[in-house]
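Hi everyone, sorry if this is the wrong subforum. Our group has a chain we'd like a structural model of before ordering constructs, and none of us has done structure prediction before. Sequence below.
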Amino acid sequence: MRISDLLKFARERGEPLFSFEFFPPKTDEGVRTLFETVEALRPLGPAYVSVTYGAGGSTRAKTVELVKRLKRDAEVEAMAHVTCVAASQDEIASVLDEVAEAGIQNVLALRGDPPRGQTAFVPHPEGFRHASELVAFIRSRPERWRFCVGAAAYPEGHVETRDLGQDLRNLGAKVAAGVDFLVTQLFFDNERYFGFVERARAAGLGLPIIPGIMPFTNVEQVERFTAMCGASIPPPLRAAMEVRRADADGARELGVAYASLQCADLLRRGAPGIHFYTLNRSPSTRAIVAALRASEPWRG
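Answer:
Right subforum, don't worry. Here is the predicted structure as tokens:
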């Protein structure tokens, strides 16, 4: 089912969507663990799951295969990430044909990050420079690719575009090209999300904007991710993290508690759902979603 339809039905019921993001494991054991994680999360009723590309498009084939297996074997709705990195238009078309033939109806269209060791994005000579061009390419052949297309949004601005006005104009180009919904980069300050939504609405962007939340499990991990994506850590959270830097259990408990509070506030204030960056682990996400379903903050 198309994610845009899932969002519509959820809105009519007055309920949020929960979705989970995974990355392609490097080993067979990692793949088994991923499917065990999906199975553990299934009772929580995920609306869909997604699978990322590795840096520089390095896991393209594995991503496509995992998305197909999740749709076929795990019987969950799946969304494939598709990026512009190191790919010609013909290669991208081949990926889109393959996922379409497998019955995948949803794709997340991204420019993608530069390959490891490179600091700047360099487009393939026969590819695309921007996600907006990729979206337009997908929309150019509706008879072949009747996808629901999602795109990324950055509440604090893209790490390469800290000018929020320019970042919003870039987002507008993606939406104009044919995006159906947006998923945000991770953030730890909900006011960043709501401020971003307000700016987007003022710019005439009325499509659903799903907040992306990462329940962190250790301090070094969250510092590494925020450095990569440009997200900020509020001072009170940073202070609480510092106290637990050498306390693995304490850091994990803080991550679950903080994300739970974040999600409850987001849903209470009207976010259409939560997209969890799971890091291929289930315990933290399971605890958070179970607590949210038990308390139903969106009805408060």
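For your construct planning: The longest strand covers residues 17-22. The longest helix spans residues 248-268.
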